[in-house]
Amino acid sequence: MPGNPRTAGIREFDRLFHQGTLLGRSEAELLDLFVCSRDEYAFEALVTRHGPMVLRTCCALLADPHDADDAFQATFLVLSRRAGSIRNAKLLGPWLHRVARRVCSRSLAESSRRSRLERPSTDALSSLAAPCATLPHADRVALHEAIDHLPERYRRVIILCDLEGHSHAEAAARLRCLIGTVKGRQSRARSLLGRRLTRLGLAPASLLSGTLLSLPTRAFSVPHTLIHRTSRTAATFALGSSLAPGTVPGVALSLATGVLSSMATHQLKFTALVGLLALCLGSSGLAALRHATDDGPRSVNAPRCSGARLPTLPRIFPTRFAR
Predict the structure, then answer these.
(1) Whose CA is closest to 100, among 159, 157, 40?
(2) Which of 68, 238, 285, 298 has an alpha carbon 20 to 30 Å from 199's alpha carbon atom?
(3) SS3 266
(4) Is the pLDDT of residue 249 over 60?
(5) How far, in Å, CA of 306 to CA of 141, rounded?
(6) What is the pTM of this model?
(7) 40-61 vs 5-21: helix axis angle to the nearest 10?
């Protein structure tokens, strides 16, 4: 029986054993385990590592903790489908941050068109919105939008160091650069964020120092029930199978499906654009080759300007000596 305490205890022991064996695995190894064998524990390890940053982002962009719960689950459901297409697993955190922003934007757009669904209470999650409550919602949205608009090399450093809490040495290892480079990029990124927020009429000092970016990651620790519920449905969703009713909220499932559809459309447009560009370059190359062939090879002794007259050579001898 599912409610048997002995069965639950065996499953908990099995989970702790697998978590111990997966503790030192890299993101690339965990993703491979999940893609190849749909290992639920490997995916749970990924959710445990990157969940605080994703939850921090969702709580910052969505005022309602229930919406943040749905967005959190939808973000990792998108990961379960796209796990095999991630090129650099060491930068999974920045990838998840961008997906979380897309999910939250879609949630805000759909909130006015959908009715409020009855969901189970998540009191533990409601308390997690408190660290972000010191900032107005509009300011939090502006801050994360500014982060997303940073150049890629600066955005990665901000997410790894400020949102995920990695040290400069850890970020340098993931980015394959020197520690001094990471420190310089972080300083430059904060300067760019300050300029952008100033142009928006916000006070960058209150947003960047002592508020969202400087909050410790442990302030956004994810409840284990949320991690387990998200990981349990990931393998089923990744296979394209229908989820059992009540396994995951319908709103989270709708958000994940919508974001996956938009990502597929964007990728299709990009592929079509690259193909069109290659076709244009090929056509222009063929036209240039045909034009060169039609002209034919030039004679080596031919004058450069066919219409110009060659200058006459001056007389070497005077006329009176000519016979």
Answers:
(1) 159
(2) 68
(3) helix
(4) yes
(5) 69
(6) 0.71
(7) 90
